[in-house]
Amino acid sequence: MRRPGPGASGYTLIELVIVVAVIAILAAAAVPALEGVTGANARAAAGELAGAMRYLYDTAALRRQTCRLAMDLDTGEWWAECTRDRFTLSREKSTAARRDEEDDDLADRFPDEADAERRRLLARAKFGTFDDRLARKRSLPGSVRFDQVWTEHQREPFSKGMAYLYFFPQGRGEAARVPVRDGSTEYTVLMQPFTGRARVVVGLAEVPRP
């Protein structure tokens, strides 16, 4: 059996160990960088939502309209809607069956429309989309998603379906907690109803209780 000559290529065990160690160090250094990117996405999304809330609070008062921030918790999309119609806000159901009951009710109201999502759009028709630069329809960036959204007219937080945050022409909005999560990184937007102040805090804030 011939042994490799002086010019033969190959790696010793020590060299392989060094290469593996270098790869492990580089991988460990990449994890915080990746978390920083996802954290930046969640932080930017929370900042945009806070800005839209403050803007809608002012817009509702100036236009003397009822406006709302519509959030699709399933798709991660959100947009603004306003109406000049007289609007009375009712307290929503908090159970998991809320969405099923809503779908059954819409099926009765729109029997000629088979698509459930289309029925929801028809039910929202009195609120027109508000295509302003600061509140146009947007999607949460990357893998950011809504997490346990609560607004004042809800009894419990929602994690799926539609959630709405209302702003009224009398210069008042709803108290709200709107968290956005990207992996283990989470930020919460808290809405103050009487001042229109929307602030971003780190983590999942508690739901305000009366």
Features:
minor pseudopilin epsh fold, 3 helices, five-stranded antiparallel beta sheet, elongated, six-stranded antiparallel beta sheet
Record the SSE blueprint.
Elements: H1 13-63, E1 66-72, E2 77-83, H2 98-109, H3 116-123, E3 128-129, E4 138-139, E5 145-146, E6 150-151, E7 162-168, E8 172-173, E9 176-182, E10 185-191, E11 198-202
Antiparallel strand pairs: 1-2, 1-7, 2-3, 2-4, 5-9, 6-9, 7-8, 9-10, 10-11
Q: Which architecture name does CATH use?
A: 3-Layer(bab) Sandwich
Question: What is the terminal separation in angstroms?
Answer: 85 Å
The CATH class assignment is Alpha Beta
Number of domains: 1
Give the CATH H-level superfamily: minor pseudopilin epsh domain
- SS elements, strand count: 11
Task: Specify the helix fraction band.
Answer: 25-40%
CATH third-tier fold name? minor pseudopilin epsh fold
- From the spread of the alpha carbons, the general shape counts as elongated
Q: Count up the helices.
A: 3
| Rg from alpha-carbon coordinates | 25 Å
What is the arithmetic mean of pLDDT?
78
pLDDT under 50 segments (min length 5)? Answer: none
Q: How do the SSEs run, as a string of H and E? A: HEEHHEEEEEEEEE
From the helix content, strand content and strand pairing, which structural class follows? Answer: alpha+beta
Proportion of beta-strand residues? 15-25%
Taking the sheet with the most strands, its summary is:
6 strands, antiparallel
